């Protein structure tokens, strides 16, 4: 490991992460692991590129220097962004998996117990098959979660980076709210959100903003599509700001004209759910009970809406196609794990189908503290009436 000035976090932070990984490797009896998930690579080394659809991996032995395997074009990112000293590259017409196998043989890890991330988005089945074929002695095993276990609780350094992401998130949301009026298109609203996010120092997010209006708010995960906002309609916004690949996210609802009785009830219900989150989320609360707190409040509405998803999810390091870390922890029934200091969640009390044809929501990104939780945001939680 080589200390460089380019690192996002102090060098000691990365040393702790690798040391903790090796402790987990010992516990799971791995002599070596092949880490290929883009978020895990960034977490361990600082490495990032938009070229992650090509195979890339960090080979970490239980002892000795890790080695980065990359496409030749991406090797510059190793030296420009990480502490990694050793790299091996393949050409565009080269064989990445054979390079991995040959590297393991050179490291004398070929005959040991090797772990690989079977759940990695960008390590497809046909490549995994080739790796497993090379290990016919059946000493290659899925090591999914071995890095994620370290990512679940964010360090103080990570919380500070997330606060910078929150500045971009909130700036973008404020711009989106300001842009909403009758006659503008969803495209124009999205343009204002993006402009302000990036102007305030935000980096490209894993997902661009969700902007829907009127009946289109019933479409899950819809982006802008040119529709004009009409008088007395509402606009549902969800914005995820990013800094150094760390994300925070928020939902807000903008209403043109007066609030109907249904909207008033929805606003009251959602705000109460957030109050309960801010009051009760903290160390010791189980994931299942965290979900139940939100779900129980939302189920007592009088506007016909319902929460049709999990109540929230871990959020932090992310690359497209998603900003969430739901594979680490999702707030849903049956999970008896306890919340711990440093965990970060996007909590999403939204209501789908109020009056049968509208979706609204107000969400928050929080981090668990020693004795409770705190929000990354200061933006009010009311529906915005214009």
Description:
- The protein contains ten helices and 17 strands.
- Helix 7 (156-179) packs antiparallel against helix 8 (186-199) and helix 9 (261-280) packs antiparallel against helix 10 (287-298).
- With 386 residues, the protein is an alpha+beta fold.
- The termini are far apart.
- The chain has helices at residues 11-27, 38-45, 75-81, 96-106, 125-134, 148-151, 156-179, 186-199, 261-280, 287-298; strands at 32-35, 57-61, 67-71, 86-90, 114-116, 140-142, 210-213, 234-243, 246-255, 312-314, 330-331, 344-347, 350-354, 358-361, 364-368, 373-375, 384-385.
- The chain has two domains: 11-151, Creatine Amidinohydrolase, Chain A, domain 1 (3-Layer(aba) Sandwich), CATH 3.40.350.10; 156-385, Creatine Amidinohydrolase (Alpha-Beta Complex).
Brief digest:
The protein has 386 residues and is an alpha+beta fold. It has helices spanning 11-27, 38-45, 75-81, 96-106, 125-134, 148-151, 156-179, 186-199, 261-280, 287-298; strands at 32-35, 57-61, 67-71, 86-90, 114-116, 140-142, 210-213, 234-243, 246-255, 312-314, 330-331, 344-347, 350-354, 358-361, 364-368, 373-375, 384-385. Helix 4 runs parallel beside helix 5 and helix 9 packs antiparallel against helix 10 (287-298).
